[in-house]
Amino acid sequence: MATAIVHEWWANFGGAENVTRAISDLMPEADVYILIKDVRGLDTGLKSRKQFESWISKVPGAKDRRLTILLSPLAYRTLSFKKYDLIISSSHTFAHTTRFPNSRNANYLSYVHTPSRSIWTPEIDNRSSILNLPLVRDSLKLLDKNLGRHVNAIAANSFEVQKRISKYWGRDSVVIHPPYDIEVSKPSYENEIFDIPYKKKSYLVAAGRMVGYKNFHVAIEIAKRMNTPLVLMGSGPLESDLRQIAKEHKSEVHFEISPNKAMWNHVIENAKAFLFPTYEDFGIAPLESIALNTPVFALNLGGAREYIQEGINGRLVSSLDAENFTQAINEYDFDRTSLNETISQFNMSSFRSKFMNWIDKEG
């Protein structure tokens, strides 16, 4: 069966990329189409030998996501003129609208990370200012909903996202939580050298894309209030702003930009706590933290409520007030040697089984 997998922006760090890798592993003979890579020549880590980047990647200014969003509805209808039997999209902004001209009768399935936050929930994530124009946003809402009507079945990455799919698109979906591969995420550290200037359990950590809705400025404020160092890992457009905030707060913040997986895991495993002060669709990094037996302190919104077990593997905090986070961390006093046992239902084996059962049912 000729199969294609469609992905949107490919970034260095992200749960959506992890999902596409997992799907590609299950279907190594599938062709993979990527709208655009954040970094030209970026290694996707995909096992598929056939990978294609869309024509948008050649458009001047294509790295500006505001432009890319506006071009996306056309791009996903012209990604390929090959004929396929099965087309699977991994979508958070328009990828679910994919429809190839010569594959109009193919079986289209979509794994949805969220209906586009920029379009439907800008109060959560408003990185695309051009969408603040009512006419633009309303037009994109119509396209986002109507151009995906041909999709035969939808899987949501969380119950939070399932509710959004029903509310905004009027579609049913099943929940298949994204995968966390415990074994892959715990490599041997024997031959690694880590340059972290802090003792074990003496620092806080926050990690992910350095963008506005992640609220890393709150993590910096928490660290200041606790008089505790913070390691901030990841990459993104707000790196310089966050460095300036740390400087102004006179906070001790150590930046680890684009760390490899071993460094990522080492920093999280040896931290006092993982900070997650964001309204996220689900959140893979906090799951990785729990698997490494480091408790997570998360904002009590979104997907975090689907795996944080109050007082066991972390705490849910009622607001973004840094003082509330500080109090929750100071009050946490539980055995952290077996936190990983609380998230076995989110491992890679579970994802593979649920995903392939979904494909078999809908295929």
Question: Any overview of this molecule?
Answer:
- The protein contains eleven helices and 13 strands.
- The protein is of the alpha/beta class and 363 residues long.
- It has two domains: 3-179 and 347-362, Rossmann fold; 204-344, Glycogen Phosphorylase B (Rossmann fold), CATH 3.40.50.2000.
- Helix 7 (239-249) links the parallel strand 9 and strand 10 (253-257).
Task: Find the CATH topology of the largest domain.
Answer: Rossmann fold
Count of helical regions: 11
Return the domain count: 2
Low-confidence stretches: none
N-C termini distance: 11 Å
For the record, the CATH class of the largest domain is Alpha Beta
- In CATH terms, what is the architecture of the largest domain? 3-Layer(aba) Sandwich
The 3D shape can be described as globular
The H/E string reads EHEEHEEHHEHEEHEHEHEHEEHH
Which structural class matches the secondary elements?
A: alpha/beta
Question: How many β-strands, per DSSP?
Answer: 13
Note the main sheet.
Answer: 7 strands, parallel
Query: Radius of gyration from the CA trace?
Result: 20 Å
Helix content: 25-40%
Strand arrangement, major sheet: 3-2-1-4-5-6-7
Strand content: 15-25%
Mean pLDDT: 89
